[in-house]
Amino acid sequence: MWSLLGLLTVLHNVLPSQLLSLLHSLWQSLQDSLTPYSYFDVPEFLGSSAVEPNDLYRHVHIYLHNSLLSSPSSPLPRLTLSLPRGSSPSSPPSLSLSPNHAVEDSFSGHRLLWTHHADTLHDSLDERRSFSLRLPKRHSLLLPYISHVSSVADLLSHSSRQRRLFTNAGNSSGSAWASVPFRHPATFDTLALDPTLKHFLVSDLDSFVTGRDFYRRTGRAWKRGYLLHGPPGSGKSSLVAAMANHLHYDVYDLELTKVADNSDLRALLIQTTNRSIIVIEDIDCSLDLTGDRAVKASKTRKRTRRMRGTSDDDDDDDRSNGYEAGEAKVTLSGLLNFTDGLWSCCGEERVIVFTTNYKGGVDPALLRPGRMDVHVKLGAIGAAAVRELVRRYVGEVREEVMEMVEESVRVGKGMTAAEVGEVLLRHREEPEEAVRELVGEMQGKGSVSGEELSEGLEEDEGGSTEGSWEVAPEGKRRKEKSGWEGRVRFLGRLKSLTKSDSGRRGV
């Protein structure tokens, strides 16, 4: 053995480097032909300059990080722990595979092996890192497995990254977005929504996210439009935040009054990223979009008058519609192309949300399916949502008190989620006092005198009143009857509850 080692040392010093490299490659080829595995290297950088990063290396690093965390019960190799600068002490450390160690993975019933290599460069402190993948030769696993690794890593990086809230800066070019971190706490678990409506929205969003193949097969742009309408305080902005948190999307809050014209609006759309929510709040108040049609109709009438020999002042009519002659502006046509035109297809996996307090103030062309696919009406809070808000704000209260709250929702004129939350917030340290105050507020909004009650009983013989929420244009509607019989029962129970509370206090 020593003689063989000595001979190899002499040959290594005597033989030319080209011949040694050829012998080494022949030896590697012999090994590859005898082994049942194939080996693939994934370097950190492309080429020898170490300038252009290799996205596949980043995908493998993220994928293995998640695999190591998701299987703590299996035997783990040596790991490297790290904590980025600026992280809080409670943040979990990041795990990565230590250099020159390997970890196993499985795919389609086959065992695969990832090895992390880190080689120090000659006369340098820099390292050249790479991953090595070992696959069975007899099965065509490379392309499906690499696609699986990239898709999982892309999903993980998207869900764990810091999301941003963008707004158009309104500079001279009109094409810049300014951003801040998006940390809104609203989720679908914290929203005071009807459970059926909440389930519908979550299912619709999940179906949209997983619908890439469907949208491509049907030739539709991969986007979804929502119109949220209802009175102030009904939770429209909170619902947008809950949608963003559920989808892990960035939010682009578009202020139309800062956009000079349609060209700048297109430039803003091009700069938005995929997997984002584009929000235009109070669409009916942002611009007088319906004025475009009035201007065009007025000009058509004046053109007809000129052809007949009469004349009129175009500038006066243009100003009467709110626009100076020749003034550049965002038009209804530009906004329609923004939501459903050719320019709207420059990206994919986008959600467009319009909010308004009054649906009737929005031009019907913006409301059709394909632009605003789902219409969500938000209004007075329902019984189930009120129970959830009470539980969340003040904790558990007696069941008979909660029944009184639910009954007051059914017979009162209704309160928005913001109004209910404010009442409970003022008395959050005294649960039953908070609930009594809430019942009083609701009765103050929907109080009924004795004469009104008798008149209502007479009216109820021929019919009943109904309250509803709607999700359009699918036509799903849930209605709850709230007749005068319920008001009579509620007033009786309110009187008995007041007496029992007064007795306990010694009044």
From TrEMBL:
Alphabetic keyword roster: ATP-binding, Magnesium, Nucleotide-binding, Signal
Species assigned in the record: Dioscorea zingiberensis
Sequence segments annotated as region (Disordered): 80-101, 298-321, 441-482
AAA+ ATPase domain: residues covered: 222-382
GO molecular function terms noted in the UniProt entry: ATP binding; ATP hydrolysis activity
SMART domains xref list: AAA (SM00382)
GO process terms (BP): response to stress
SUPFAM superfamilies named in the record: P-loop containing nucleoside triphosphate hydrolases
Keyword Isomerase: no
Biased composition (Basic and acidic residues): 473-482
Catalytic reaction list: ATP + H2O = ADP + phosphate + H(+)
Family listed: Belongs to the AAA ATPase family. BCS1 subfamily.
Record's compositionally biased regions (Acidic residues): 452-463
Biased amino acid composition, Basic residues: 298-308
Residue stretches of biased makeup (Low complexity): 80-99
Protein name as it appears in the record: AAA+ ATPase domain-containing protein
Signal peptide span: 1-16
Cofactor(s) needed by this chain: Mg(2+)
